């Protein structure tokens, strides 16, 4: 009896300790973003004289207006980022599912080698081929265009791998065979039966590929040169390399908030889904 | 007989469905990779408006690359900042994973905590770095908070000291990746046969003993996998230090990473040295990838 009480007491203190650490970690994770949104609501004079505060101010709208009418083409940046990320997400997920289906549903001579090849190249980062990539798109006259940012996503080994794993656990070949008996063509079977069945995995990967492309800085910064074609991460970098002391700090914070807020909002709505998706896939660099 | 020919006929669709991936991969990845390697054997750069090369110079680019101290310094910087972020990352992830999967603790609000710790992973790294740059600037809010609270007598120049600049990069990397690692480790921990824990408890093992004698050894493959993939990611470190230091790698180039160095060659159009550096990075990542591939195969066979 006594012993049990003791262990209960031990458990309670342990649980309290866990919660204290978890709350501290939560604060460490969210503090920066909270401060960002606070500072995005403060005017430049408040920021330069007031220093640190945890309280929201009233100048968010002013900062927003100044930012939109300022020198950075951020509305173009938003449009470009949305366009590139959406196209990348759609192409990448559709063609990765198709590639996964080719390996999953058919039996052909080179299948084993193709599968091994895709797995082998999965970890090769784009950075190591970017030099040749830039020369190539220069020759193809695709410099300063969105095409080299979008089309290569058709070959996305990581998305492919996720789709393949999901297919292995859910898609049975008998379904495909039944559709064949009904006289459906292979391409139609893929589009009307297989693809819709993959919805949960597609949703997860649409989100991940969209966010990855939205956040992508290295390659777009090397490809896009015209101001009106630049995506948001490039504009952020431009803000950094400008003589930033001349800047209205309220606008700087507003610009940062503006680039990450869409992702935060989508994440908060779909978080259950996304966090589940990470553990489901296992592999996500 | 007829049925078999039909199966063969179906199977040609495997190739058709593979075509888009293969064509795009060959054009946008394989050909660039080969031409990057090809470039590394040529002298090809600009001095002002004058273009030098391309002239074939054999392995001269590699000799030049490895004989200057720059690359070793940048490799060391990259590794140091990776380790500074990775050690707290793996420790915190192990701790949180063990707590979340421990049935006797029955922690509530797990979904909330998981949502919070994964959030920084989805944040645009360049915006996050810009945010840290403004928050930790000399007159910024962090300094005014620390001075106000009496920790510092005057504003601390975070980005002018090697240790603090590297620590900021490591802190951001830690924040961005520990949630992801926690979730990966948790799925590994949940995969451990619960009867092992029960048997250990019956034998009177404490939870610390259970963690060190059962959880940790069984997690080894996943831990190694996490470490190597994180190392591959660490070698690609770019956005955070690039934006934080505006590409200078200051102070005194102690936060300059390998990819930042590559980026410099790409901007100045020094394709020879840039090519050699790319090939070096390719070889290192390839070796690490083979290790990951082997580990995955080994665990698959076990299952």
Written overview of the protein:
By secondary structure, chain A is mainly α. Chain A is 75% helix and 0% strand. Chain A has 14 helices and no strands. By secondary structure, chain B is mainly α. Chain B has two domains: 2-56, no CATH class; 68-302, MetI-like fold, CATH 1.10.3720. Chain B has helices spanning 2-39, 60-67, 69-101, 110-122, 125-135, 141-148, 162-190, 194-202, 207-235, 239-244, 258-267, 271-302, and strands at residues 42-47, 50-56. The longest helix of chain B is centred in the N-terminal third of the chain and has 38 residues, at 2-39. The model of chain B has no long low-confidence stretch (mean pLDDT 90). Chains A and B meet through helix 1, helix 4, helix 5, helix 6 and helix 11 of A and helix 1, helix 3, helix 4, helix 5 and helix 6 of B.
CATH superfamily of the largest domain in chain A: MetI-like
Total strands of chain A: the figure is 0
Helix share bin of chain B? over 70%
Major sheet of chain B: 2 strands, antiparallel
Contiguous uncertain segments of 5+ residues of chain A = none
Which CATH class of the largest domain in chain A?
Mainly Alpha
Structural class of chain A: mainly alpha
Tell me, what's the shape of chain A? globular
In terms of quaternary structure, the protein is heterodimer
Order of helices and strands of chain B: HEEHHHHHHHHHHH
Shape of chain B: globular
Portion in strands of chain B? under 5%
Total individual domains of chain B: 2
What gap, in angstroms, lies between the N and C termini of chain A? 50 Å
Rg calc of chain A:
25 Å
Individual helix count of chain A: 14
């Amino acid at each position: 009896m006594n012993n049990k009480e003791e262990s209960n007491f031990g458990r309670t203190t342990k649980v309290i300790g866990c919660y204290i650490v978890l709350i501290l970690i939560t604060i460490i994770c969210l503090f920066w973003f909270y401060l960002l949104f606070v500072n995005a609501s403060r005017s430049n004079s408040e920021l330069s004289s007031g220093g640190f505060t945890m309280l929201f101010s009233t100048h968010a709208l002013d900062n927003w207006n100044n930012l939109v009418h300022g020198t950075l083409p951020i509305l173009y940046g938003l449009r470009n980022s949305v366009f590139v990320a959406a196209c990348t997400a759609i192409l990448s997920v559709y063609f990765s599912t198709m590639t996964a289906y080719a390996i999953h549903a058919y039996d052909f001579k080179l299948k084993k080698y193709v599968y091994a090849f895709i797995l082998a190249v999965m970890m090769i980062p784009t950075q190591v081929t970017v030099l040749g990539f830039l020369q190539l798109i220069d020759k193809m006259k695709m410099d300063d265009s969105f095409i080299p940012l979008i089309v290569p996503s058709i070959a996305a080994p990581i998305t492919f791998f996720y789709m393949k794993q999901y297919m292995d656990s859910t898609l049975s070949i008998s379904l495909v065979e039944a559709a064949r008996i009904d006289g459906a063509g292979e391409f139609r079977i893929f589009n009307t039966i297989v693809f819709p069945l993959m919805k949960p995995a597609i949703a997860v990967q649409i989100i991940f590929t969209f966010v990855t492309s939205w956040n992508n800085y290295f390659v777009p910064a090397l490809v896009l040169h015209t101001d009106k074609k630049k995506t948001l991460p490039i504009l952020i970098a431009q803000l950094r390399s400008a003589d930033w002391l001349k800047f209205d700090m309220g606008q700087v914070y507003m610009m940062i908030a503006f680039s990450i807020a869409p992702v935060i909002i989508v994440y908060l709505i779909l978080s259950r889904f996304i966090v589940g998706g990470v553990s489901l896939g296992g592999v996500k660099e | 007989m007829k049925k078999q020919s039909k199966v063969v006929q179906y199977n040609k669709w495997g190739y058709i469905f593979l075509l888009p991936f293969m064509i795009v991969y060959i054009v946008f990845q394989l050909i660039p990779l080969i031409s990057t390697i090809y470039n590394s054997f040529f002298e090809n750069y600009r001095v002002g408006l004058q273009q030098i090369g391309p002239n074939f110079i054999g392995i001269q680019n590699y000799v030049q690359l490895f004989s200057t101290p720059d690359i070793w310094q940048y490799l060391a910087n990259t590794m140091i900042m990776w380790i500074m972020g990775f050690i707290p990352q793996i420790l915190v992830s192990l701790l949180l994973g063990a707590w979340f999967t421990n049935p006797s603790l029955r922690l509530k609000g797990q979904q909330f905590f998981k949502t919070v710790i994964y959030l920084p992973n989805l944040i645009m790294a360049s915006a996050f770095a810009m945010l840290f740059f403004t928050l930790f600037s000399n007159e910024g809010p962090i300094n005014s908070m620390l001075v106000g609270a009496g920790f510092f007598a005057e504003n601390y120049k975070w980005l002018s000291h090697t240790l603090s600049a590297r620590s900021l990069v490591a802190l951001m990397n830690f924040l961005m990746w520990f949630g992801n690692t926690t979730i990966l480790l948790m799925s590994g921990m949940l995969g451990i046969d619960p009867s092992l824990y029960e048997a250990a408890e019956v034998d009177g093992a404490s939870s610390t003993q259970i963690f060190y004698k059962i959880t940790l050894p069984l997690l080894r493959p996943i831990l190694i996998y996490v470490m190597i993939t994180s190392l591959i990611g660490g070698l690609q470190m770019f956005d955070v230090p690039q934006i934080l230091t505006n590409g200078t790698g200051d102070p005194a180039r102690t936060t300059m990473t390998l990819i930042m160095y590559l980026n410099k060659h790409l901007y100045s159009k020094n394709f020879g040295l840039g090519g050699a550096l790319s090939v070096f990075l390719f070889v290192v990542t390839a070796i690490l990838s083979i290790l990951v591939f082997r580990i995955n195969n080994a665990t698959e066979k076990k299952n």
